[in-house]
Amino acid sequence: MMKIPYYPGCTLNTVAKGLDTSARESAAALGFEMEELKGWNCCGAAFPLTPDNLIGLTAPAKVLLNAKKEGGGSVMTLCSVCYNVLKRTNRVLRDDKEKRSIVTGFIEEDYDGSIDVIHYLEVLRDRVGFEKIKEAVKRPLKGIRAGAYYGCMLLRPFKEMGIDDHEAPTIMEGLLRALGCEAVDFPDKAECCGAHLAMTRTDIVERLSGNVMRSAAGRGAELIVTSCPLCQYNLEKSQKKTLEETPGYREVPVVYFTQLLGLALGQDEDTLGLGKNLWDIRPLLKSKGV
Amino acid sequence: MNIKLVKEDIESALIRQLERISGEDVKKCYQCGNCSAGCPVAYAMDVPPAQMIRFLQLGRGGEAFGAGSMWLCVGCLQCYSRCPKNVSAASLFEALRQMRLRSGGGHEEVREIPLPFLKGAPQQALVCGFRKLVG
Questions:
Q1: Is the pTM of this model over 0.95?
Q2: How far apart are CA A140 and CA A180, in angstroms?
Q3: By the number of CB atoms within 10 A of the CB, which of A125, A241, A264, B37 ranks highest?
Q4: Is A274 helix (H, G, I), strand (E, B) or coil?
């Protein structure tokens, strides 16, 4: 079985456990094993946006260094933010010798940016293939109209992330169709949810996340999938307000794409972590006869 | 608003320092406004991205530093991805934040963050929020 080194990151060990467990089980069913790094630390949760802030690169540099020492040529993430931070840091260390010498000086060990940072979605698309996933589906999610919400970190900046088109990505829609869903396109699928402003400015998060949900629901989405724990949290949390403020709006559950994948592959509810979601997906499944 | 253009202001050390930290050249911007149009939080900013860059171009560093916009920029990079001149307003906001945080001025106090949020939020929100907003 193909083994892929895996970096879970902080949130997947706690709040977003379902994203982790459903992904691991799905991997096993699709013929690869996620081998968690033995040594890892927080990635820092934000790539420094100024070239001046090199100290912000030390935490992700340590993660990358450990991944290389453990012998893998690549490291895979599930969280969009981890993916963004690790991939961008890796590129700096690979392409900028001066910065590399400063950052590796801080962590007191050299690392040259030589491993690849990949996202679980890329493994599904490029190594497993959506066709093979379609064949592995045990419980087709027929008749479910699902919207893929990408947010920011998975896609931008496009030149560095390169996972998909940054204005009109389709990688998650490809997966949704393989699972039997009807993929619903909606205008705000790559707009921001409000991110860390959840800490102090819930009014802004409610407005931004509300816009995303209304945009998806307006196109007929009955379900949203995402790959980022913070997006999931913001969209879920804000929905109460969205319901209050929007006449005719009906609740839309927000799940991780791996929860939907696991569901279609026949996983049980504990592995999927469905009980932790604020808005229950089960009534929708029941109404569709899934 | 009448703005008197003063060479010393346009070439001020403050603005040069901001450009050095951010890695951006504010003169590249030709004010198309794509950044402000795409910015999801521009509606809540006192000085939206394009205007902030314009102030810097005109040597009005005080307006950029005095605005609260830097604390609202989420770093989603919509501005940068849509800029025809490859200017990152997000990097300029981050540089403004860094300069404020480095001089000892935080924006949020940890003790003022609501307890339910600290208990229930994804860790990444806290780590990211602390790094961007707390001195």
A1: yes
A2: 5
A3: A264
A4: helix
B55 vs A: CB within 8 A: no
Report all structural domains of chain B as residue ranges with CATH numbers, in order of start. Answer: 7-104 (1.10.1060.10), 108-135 (no CATH)
Distance CA(A240)–CA(A288), nearest Å, equals: 24
Contacts of B121 in chain A (CB under 8 A): 15, 198-199, 233
| CB atoms closer than 10 angstroms to residue A174 | 18
Q: Whole domain around residue A170: which residue ranges?
A: 130-287
Range 117-136 of A in CB contact (< 8 A) with B: none
Beta-bridge partners for A75: A117
Given its phi and psi angles, is residue A202 left (phi above 0), alpha (psi -120 to 50 degrees) or beta? alpha
Pair (A102, A242) in one structural domain: no
Cβ–Cβ contact A107 with B under 8 A: no
Backbone φ and ψ for A205, nearest 5 degrees, come out as -60, -40
**Complex-level ipTM:** 0.95
A10 with B123: Cβ contact below 8 A: yes
Which ranges in A179-281 belong to alpha helices (H)? 202-218, 229-245, 257-264, 269-272
**Structure confidence by residue, pLDDT tens digits, B75-107:** 999 999 999 999 999 999 999 999 999 998 778
Most A CBs within 10 Å, among B124, B128, B130, to test the A interface = B124
Residues A68 and A153 in one domain: no
Residue A31 located in a structural domain = yes
Encoding tokens for residue A257?
Answer: 């794409």
B128 touches chain A (CB under 8 A): yes
Residue in chain B closest to A194 (alpha carbons) equals B74
Per the CB < 8 Å rule, is B72 touching A15?
Answer: no
Q: Which residues contact A136 (CB under 8 A, 6 or more apart)?
A: A29, A30, A265
Give mean pLDDT, residues A72-98: 97
CA A81, CA A261: separation in Å to the nearest integer?
Answer: 20
- Closest C-alpha among A260, A242, A13 to residue B122: A13
Tell me, what's the pLDDT at B49?
98
- CATH number of the domain that residue A184 is part of: 3.40.50.11810
The number of folded domains in chain A is: 2
Cβ <8 Å between A52 and B21? yes
Q: Is residue A115 within 8 Å of A37, Cβ to Cβ? A: no
Q: Is the pLDDT of residue B38 over 90?
A: yes
Largest CA distance in chain B: 51
